[in-house]
Amino acid sequence: MRPGPFDYYEPENIAQALDLITEATVIAGGQSLIPSMRLRQVTVTKLISISNIAELSGDIIKKADSIEIGALTTLSDLLSSQIIEEHTPWLREAAQQVGDVQVRNLATVVGNICWSDPRANMSIALLASNAIITTINSKLQERKISLKDFFVSFQKNILENELVKNILIPNHELAAGRYLEFSRQRNDLALVNVSVVSSEKKTTLVIGGTRNVPLIIETDEHNKMNHAATIMNKIPDRLNDFHTDQYGSQQYRLELAISLARRVLNSLRCKLDE
């Protein structure tokens, strides 16, 4: 199939993009949007490409208080980053499972988040990392939004005529993290995916493949040895956060989540004990 008719724009700077953004859809890599448009699952009347905006960065920068991932950073950029490999290797684990090389060369980290699918790899791993996004509006005002407050429903988020400028991963003594997923075959979207990040202060588990938005379970107990048990005890009560479709029932997805969570938590416990 072919997409319906739409107007296409390639602004040269942020101000031009924001002048056009009302009732528009923004595209960077388009690896999720374009297939959905062709299948008429998504209707777009105005499409804005931000790939030529010099003010938006594709860099990954280590700062004093955070790691900054630019709006145009591709998944391949993330996979080749020494900063990511050294400080947040679980983001690499998540990015490695997205599509094939051609997809990863075009797909952006920010685009993966803004698509707002509760199975999106980078959303799950960045939520576990307590990531923050920086947006900019038509008045060129910036605001910072915790990724935990970003998702509203399936493929819906809180952006209102804004562009995402970057993603910030706070440096709060992150200890270790993992990402793991289960899919029917390679390159499929995950049926269920999980990521866990443990610091000195708390452990955060995020589960994707849920009904509308990713499921976040965390603990701030002072005794880190109790974190895994506390989190595992909370998962069975979240059956209603999952859905039934042709690929599996609520109960099946819940059991998958429990199994994957147990594996990543056990793996992480071994890593922390090294």
Protein architecture, described:
With 274 residues, the protein is an alpha+beta fold. The protein has 2 domains: 164 residues, Uridine Diphospho-n-acetylenolpyruvylglucosamine Reductase, domain 3; 100 residues, Enolase-like, domain 1, CATH 3.30.390.50. It is 31% helix and 25% strand. The chain is built from 10 helices and 14 strands. Strands 4-5-10-6-7 form a 5-stranded antiparallel β-sheet. The radius of gyration is 19 Å and the shape is globular. It starts with 6 loop residues before the first strand and ends with a helix. The model has no long low-confidence stretch (mean pLDDT 90).
Write out key terms for the chains shown.
274 residues, alpha+beta, Uridine Diphospho-n-acetylenolpyruvylglucosamine Reductase, domain 3, Enolase-like, domain 1, 2 domains, 5-stranded antiparallel beta sheet, 4-stranded antiparallel beta sheet, 31% helix, globular
Task: Tell me the layout of helices and strands.
Elements: E1 7-9, H1 14-20, E2 25-27, H2 33-38, E3 46-49, E4 60-62, E5 66-70, H3 75-79, H4 82-87, H5 89-96, H6 101-106, H7 109-114, H8 121-128, E6 132-136, E7 142-146, E8 151-153, E9 156-157, E10 163-170, E11 174-182, E12 192-199, E13 203-208, E14 215-219, H9 227-234, H10 250-273
Parallel strand pairs: 1-3, 2-3
Antiparallel strand pairs: 4-5, 5-10, 6-7, 6-10, 8-9, 11-12, 12-13, 13-14
